[in-house]
Amino acid sequence: MLKFISFGSGSSGNCYFLATPTDALLIDIGVGLRTLKKSFRDYGCSFSQVHHVLITHDHADHIKSVGSFSHEYSVPVYATREVHEGINHNYCVVKKLAPELTCLVEKGRQQQIGEFLITPFGVPHDSTDNVGYMVEAGGVTFCIITDAGRVTDEMKQYIARTQYLVIEANHDVEMVQGGPYPQFLKERILSQHGHLNNRDCGIALAENMSERLRHVWLCHLSEENNHPELARKTVESVLRTYGIVAGTDIQLEVLKRTTPMGPYELGVKSEE
Asked: In the 8-state DSSP scheme, what is residue 161?
């Protein structure tokens, strides 16, 4: 059994919590540390539970507080070599990581971190580097894919394997094209190294999910170019064209941008 909490999902700050009964990790710490402390207190959690931090990439909304958290609580931070270099050079990370708390992961290589077996895999985005993570513990498989310009064949394999999935549904294409953003920013968002739109997210799910998939959370929604109900309905509509009914075949939810959501208890079906 795993516990999952989202403490923020969007350009204002991203942070996700996974815990077994005796171990816990955070994926990204782009939320302000003071805000995160309050959220932990509200949920009856303690930072002393967190023994590891995984980082997806080096954009500020994913790493803003990682140095301060790691320093204050002596928690090791795991990321690819390129992402660590990006963290070290990012001016938004005021407190840099101590060398002894800087730990490396490699894309495609399984690694045991405490009670968690983690596998990073490449995700295309316009950052120094970017990975998704498959996390396995207690027979449960959890996968996160965020800030993805497109869905690669490798990413499809992890979608097909997981029981629980956090996946980006960042924007509606028409809202971006007709919105107030400057052209260069529109092109960045819509590019193959930008962000995943609602429809492509739905297609990625429909074409690659297995019967093992139980729960999907749509993450990293744009405040200006999306809406939670629009994202949910678009993905549901795509799934329906493939004969998949949200709420029956899988559970589908939209993570809030600045408000914590959870806790969710992630278990294993008896037949698995």
From this structure: H
β-strands 50-54, 77-79 pairing: parallel
Select from 14, 107, 1, 110 the least CA-distant residue to 53. 14
Among 171, 204, 203, residue whose Cα is nearest residue 190 = 171
Q: DSSP letters along 64-122, please? A: TTHHHHHHHHT--EEE-HHHHHHHHH-TT--SPPPGGGEEE--TT--EEETTEEEEEEE
Determine contact, residues 98/76, Cβ cutoff 8 Å. no
Please measure the distance between the N-terminal and C-terminal CA atoms of the chain and give it in whole angstroms: 13
Phi, psi of 50 (to 5 degrees): -85, 115
For 165-180, the pLDDT digits (tens) are 999 999 999 999 999 9
The first and second tokens of residue 191, run together, are: 């590019």
DSSP one-letter string for 238-257: HHHHTT--BTTTBEEEE--S
Summarised one tens digit per residue, pLDDT across range 63-116 is 999 999 999 999 999 999 999 999 999 999 999 999 999 999 999 999 999 999
Neighbours of 259 (CB within 10 A): 11
Q: Are 201 and 218 in contact (CB under 8 A)?
A: yes
Tokens 């449960």 sit on residue:
140
Closest by CA to 189, choosing from 178, 201, 197, 180, is 197
- In sequence order, what are the residues at sequence separation of 6 or more whose Cβ sits closer than 8 angstroms to the Cβ of residue 134? 118, 119, 121, 141, 142, 143, 158, 161, 162
CA-based R_g, the chain, Å: 17
Q: What is the pLDDT of residue 268?
A: 81
